[in-house]
Every structure is written in structure tokens, then in C-alpha cells.
């Protein structure tokens, strides 16, 4: 029963958001059948998520191959810069994009940010570095013997792609595509800022139906469609969502020689430069705009303290639930697929639906600052779980069962086992997961937008307010502070990952 504690808590949180809405709709006897508006919103959600996924992966494959084939001065630095968008808060990235391509930006009119083009640009900005990182890892895990054999057989670049690189990338693509698709389909802040009447997704439409129109019937219809789309994606790629354990190989020499021809070097240079021009300028715009406008103020300090308070509570809760979920996945191997879907709960059940269901449940309680903090932290915890499970899952799978016999012989159980065996063995993975959860909560705007009240203003919501009031200078300073905090913590988590 202990192995089911974390899954049951997560399931309870999800049901606490879903059941009240259905009960409310049933008591009113409303109609939840999809209409033309719901089908149009669903088709646009599928369109933008599919295009974002396709563009990100299509661009990432040649970039990852270029990084794998070339070894040049500054390669490690450039890869580190490519990792920055992974830790950059969404609202900060939006500020960088609007500084460059907005109506009052450096390149006005180059790209229409407010519509499908802007949505795709923002999604590719975040997802291209993620795809490059995962695909490069797959390429670098290829056995060096394969490349030496390809060289001895005088393989061309096309032959190497067909017989070496593609077999290495193929297993990772469905998992990567599903991850990017779910992130884009559940995207909230990007659509809220760059979308419009003709560019609205299910997530934002649910928020508008509940918070602006309080049309519960339409919100339920859209929610059912959102859950159906997400579950369909998970079911299609269910056999590939769990990454295989890395093989232990004797690595003698991982240097590739197929990147030496002049044409290959020229193509790889162009590919990396094009990707850099897509990813780096928004980050430079954030730094350039914010460095001259960092002005400490009472509201900035207050927002920072609230952000840290929420992040501390959220990361502590997320670590506890992620540990329990990862342990359950190890112990209950036959139910691993169901547990994985439960861990993705915040991306399968729309956060707008969860937040409204929680509001209905807790509306009889006295509205307080502490209640808002607790609900925001819980939402951030659920949204961080899938990322934390990718860190804690492999670590526990490696160490947990390995120590079972030793613990049985020493009669170590419960707290004593956790203190003396499990915690020391997984200390680095726990620290890395805690930093990840803290960063995700610190930069999140979705939960604050859906659940924030009673004067709860965090650093991301402060940036949004300043942008909405055309205070670009103040927004630049706040965005730079938030970006620096998130990137510093993410860098610390990355350094810890090298010790696992």
C-alpha cells in the first residue's frame, strides 16, 4: 500500500479538479456535445502543436548531426548557450521576442508575432534546443566501433546517415515528438500573449470560458477534447515513452571523422549558425534591455519573496511525490504505463480545469493569501512531476532493487532505510531534481494566472504586468533578474547531473 501513496495523492488532486466541474454541469443539465467553435479550436490546437513539433524536430536533426560531427573551439560554450532556453521562463522569452520582432522592436514587421507565426516561433525557440540536446545525446551514445567500421568501408555521408545515425535517432524520435507535442498542446502563456480570436487553443479557450464567461458546459466540452487529444498521443507512443537504460560499453575513441570533408564542414557550419541566429538573439535582447534598467523596488522585492516561497513549497512537495512515483514505477513494473500517464496528469488534464475545480471545492473556505500560495504550489508541483521523474526514475531503478537484499539482511525499513541507504545513494539525483523543481516553479506563470489572487504577485506575473502597462524598461530589468536566477539554478542542476 505504501507504494501507492504518491499515485493516490496525485489521482486525488486530479479528481478534485475534474469531479466538481462535472457535478456542477450535471446539476445544471447542460449540453457538453462539441459544437463548431469547439471543433475549430481543437483543429487549431492540433495544427499548431503538429507544426511546432515537426519544425522543431526537422531543424534539430541536422543541427544535432552537425554538433556530433564537428569539434571546434567554443563548441561546449555554444551547447551551454543552447541549454539556456530550457531554463528560461516563458514570459521572459516572450519579452525577448517582442523586443526583437514586436511592433516597437528592433525588427518590426519581420515576423507577425500575434498569430500562428509568433506561436510557432516561440515554441521552436523553446523546443529546438531541447530536441538538439536529446538527439545529440542519442548520437553520442552510438558505439565508436560503428563509425570506425563505416570509415573502413568508405561510407559516404548518406551511407552513415542510413546505417549509423538514423538507427541511433529512430528510437528517440517518437518519445521526443510526443513530449514536444504535449508541451505545445498544453501551452498557455505563449498562446495567451501571441494568440487571438483566430489563434486560440483548447487550453486558453477553457480559461476564457471559465474565467471570463463562466460557461461551464463549453469548458467541459473543451476539457474532454483536450484530455482525449493528450491521451491519444500517449497511447500512440506508449511503447516508447520509457527511455531504455543506457548500455555499458567500453569507449575507446568517440571522435567522428565523417565531418572532415569541406562541403560537410560548410554545411554543418551553416546549420549551427542558422540555429544560433534563431536561439541566441532573444537572449541577447533580454540582457541588453535589462542590464540598464535593474531598479530595486518594494514590489520587486515582494514579488521575489513570494516567488521563492512558492518555489520552496512546490519543490518540496514535488520531490516527495516524484520519489513516491518513481519508487512505485520500480516496484510495480506491470503498472508502469498507467503510472507514467498519471505522472503526466497536469498535461493530460488542463490546468485551467484543475484550477476551476479546486476553486469550486475551496470557495466555502475563507479566501486567504496562504490558500492561494498552497494551490499555486500544488499546481506547479504537478506540472514539474514529468521532468523530475526523468531524473529520479533511472536513479531509483538503478539503486533501489540493488540494495533490497542488503536492507533485508540488516532489517532496515522505512525511515532508517531512507536515512542510511536510499538517500545517500540517490543524493545527487535528489539535489538535481530539487533544483529543477525550484526553477520550474520560479519561472512559471500559468499557475499564478489561473490561481493567483489576494495580492499574490510573483516575478513572472510582475513582468507580465509591466509589459501590459507598457513599462518596457522596468519589465526588462525584472526579466533579466528572473532569467539570471533561473539560469544560475539550472546551471547548478546541470553540473550535478555530471556526477550522477
Kindly describe this structure.
The chain is globular, with a radius of gyration of 23 Å. The model is unreliable at 248-253 (pLDDT under 50). Helix content is 75%, strand content 0%. The protein is built from 24 helices and no strands. It is mainly alpha-helical and 500 residues long.
Biggest sheet statistics? none
**Euclidean distance between termini CA atoms:** 30 Å
Number of helices: 24
What pattern of helices and strands is seen along the backbone? HHHHHHHHHHHHHHHHHHHHHHHH
What percentage of the residues does DSSP assign to strands (E)? under 5%
Mean pLDDT: 82
C-alpha Rg (nearest Å): 23 Å
**What would the principal axes of the Cα set say about the shape?**
globular
Structural class: mainly alpha
**Uncertain runs:** 248-253
Give me the count of strands: 0
Into which percent range does the helicity of residues fall? over 70%
Summarize the structure.
With 500 residues, the protein is mostly helical.
Give descriptors for this structure.
500 residues; mainly alpha; 24 helices; globular
Give the topology, please:
Layout: H1 5-28, H2 36-69, H3 75-82, H4 84-87, H5 90-101, H6 116-140, H7 144-152, H8 157-169, H9 172-185, H10 189-194, H11 202-211, H12 216-236, H13 262-290, H14 298-331, H15 336-343, H16 345-348, H17 351-362, H18 369-399, H19 404-410, H20 414-425, H21 427-442, H22 446-451, H23 459-468, H24 472-497
Helix pairs in contact: 1-14, 1-17, 2-6, 2-9, 2-12, 2-13, 5-13, 5-23, 6-9, 9-12, 11-12, 11-17, 13-24, 14-15, 14-18, 14-21, 18-21, 21-24, 23-24
Amino acid at each position: 500500500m505504501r507504494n501507492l501513496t504518491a499515485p493516490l495523492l496525485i489521482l486525488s488532486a486530479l479528481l478534485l479538479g475534474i469531479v466538481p466541474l462535472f457535478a456542477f454541469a450535471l446539476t445544471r443539465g447542460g449540453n457538453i456535445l462539441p459544437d463548431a467553435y469547439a471543433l475549430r479550436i481543437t483543429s487549431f490546437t492540433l495544427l499548431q502543436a503538429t507544426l511546432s513539433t515537426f519544425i522543431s524536430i526537422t531543424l534539430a536533426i541536422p543541427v544535432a548531426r552537425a554538433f556530433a560531427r564537428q569539434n571546434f573551439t567554443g563548441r561546449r560554450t555554444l551547447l551551454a548557450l543552447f541549454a539556456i532556453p530550457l531554463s528560461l521562463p516563458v514570459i521572459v522569452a516572450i519579452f525577448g521576442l517582442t523586443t526583437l520582432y514586436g511592433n516597437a522592436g528592433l525588427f518590426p514587421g519581420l515576423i507577425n508575432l500575434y498569430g500562428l507565426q509568433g506561436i510557432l516561433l516561440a515554441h521552436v525557440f523553446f523546443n529546438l534546443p531541447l530536441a538538439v540536446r536529446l538527439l545529440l545525446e542519442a548520437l553520442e551514445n552510438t558505439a565508436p566501433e560503428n563509425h570506425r567500421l563505416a570509415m573502413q568501408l568508405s561510407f559516404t555521408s548518406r551511407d552513415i546517415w542510413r546505417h549509423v545515425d538514423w538507427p541511433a535517432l529512430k528510437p528517440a524520435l517518437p518519445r521526443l515528438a510526443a513530449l514536444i507535442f504535449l508541451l505545445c498542446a498544453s501551452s498557455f502563456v505563449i498562446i495567451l500573449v501571441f494568440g487571438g480570436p483566430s489563434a486560440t487553443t483548447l487550453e486558453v479557450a477553457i480559461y476564457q470560458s471559465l474565467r471570463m464567461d463562466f460557461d461551464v458546459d463549453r469548458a467541459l466540452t473543451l476539457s474532454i477534447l483536450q484530455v482525449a487529444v493528450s491521451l491519444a498521443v500517449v497511447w500512440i507512443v506508449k511503447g516508447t515513452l520509457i527511455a531504455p537504460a543506457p548500455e555499458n560499453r567500453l569507449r575507446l575513441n568517440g571522435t567522428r571523422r565523417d565531418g572532415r570533408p569541406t562541403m560537410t564542414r560548410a554545411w554543418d557550419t551553416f546549420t549551427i549558425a542558422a540555429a544560433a541566429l534563431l536561439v541566441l538573439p532573444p537572449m541577447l535582447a533580454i540582457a541588453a534591455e535589462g542590464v540598464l534598467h535593474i531598479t530595486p523596488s518594494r514590489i520587486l522585492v515582494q514579488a521575489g519573496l513570494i516567488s521563492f516561497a512558492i518555489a520552496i513549497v512546490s519543490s518540496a512537495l514535488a520531490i516527495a511525490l516524484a520519489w513516491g512515483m518513481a519508487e512505485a514505477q520500480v516496484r510495480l513494473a506491470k503498472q508502469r504505463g498507467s503510472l507514467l500517464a498519471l505522472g503526466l496528469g497536469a498535461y493530460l488534464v488542463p490546468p485551467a480545469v484543475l484550477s476551476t475545480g479546486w476553486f469550486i471545492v475551496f470557495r466555502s473556505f475563507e479566501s486567504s493569501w496562504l490558500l492561494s500560495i498552497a494551490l499555486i504550489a500544488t499546481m506547479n508541483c504537478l506540472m514539474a512531476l514529468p521532468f523530475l521523474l526523468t531524473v529520479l526514475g533511472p536513479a531509483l531503478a538503478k539503486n533501489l532493487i540493488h540494495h533490497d537484499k542488503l536492507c533485508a539482511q540488516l532489517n532496515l525499513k522505512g525511515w532508517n532505510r531512507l536515512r542510511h541507504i536510499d538517500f545517500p545513494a540517490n543524493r545527487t539525483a535528489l539535489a538535481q531534481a530539487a533544483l529543477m523543481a525550484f526553477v520550474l516553479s520560479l519561472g512559471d506563470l500559468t499557475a499564478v494566472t489561473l490561481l493567483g489572487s489576494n495580492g499574490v504577485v510573483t516575478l513572472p506575473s510582475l513582468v507580465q504586468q509591466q509589459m501590459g502597462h507598457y513599462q518596457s524598461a522596468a519589465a526588462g530589468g525584472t526579466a533579466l533578474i528572473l532569467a539570471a536566477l533561473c539560469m544560475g539554478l539550472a546551471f547548478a542542476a546541470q553540473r550535478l547531473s555530471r556526477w550522477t
